Known about the structure:
mainly beta; four-stranded antiparallel beta sheet; 0% helix; single chain; five-stranded mixed beta sheet; 9 strands
Amino acid sequence: MSAGVGADVEALCSKCGDVWHVVVAKVKEQIVKVQCKQCGGYHRYKSPHAVPKEKRGPAPPRAPRESKSPVERFEKPAVTADLSKSVKPYRASETFEVGERVDHVNFGQGVIELSEPGKITVFFASGRRVLAQAKVAATNGLERPKPFDHAHPPAGGKRVSET
C-alpha cells in the first residue's frame, strides 16, 4: 500500500540529493509531488528504488514539409544607386539627393531612397532608416518675419496712462 499525504517517503531530491521527503500530492494511489525535508523544495516524486525506463526507439519519420523559397530579410532598394558618384560620409548637417550612396557609422553603406527637407530615407542592408539632413533654404520668396519690437506702441495706438 502506498503512503498517504503527509507521510514520510523516500525520494531523490533534485536540489540537494537528500532522500527523505513528505508526500504532498497523490493521484489515485500514485504519489506525484513531494517536499524535501532537508531543503524544503517541492518536486515530482522520484523513487530511489525505481527501475529505469527503457530508452525509446527512434521517432517515427515525419511527413516531409513543403519546400518554400527562402524569404528575403529585406526587399531590394526602391532606387538604384548612382555608381558614378563616390560614397559620401553621412552627416546630419549636409543635404543628400535620391540615388546617392552614404556611409553611416553604425549602419554601413546605404542608398538614399527619399529626400525631404530635414530628413532622408536610406536603404541599408539591415533595413530602411529615416535620418536627419540639413534643411534646404526656402526658395519660394517667403522670408522669416521681422522680430516684433515690444518697446514702442503700435502706430496710432494709445498708451494707457496711470493716474
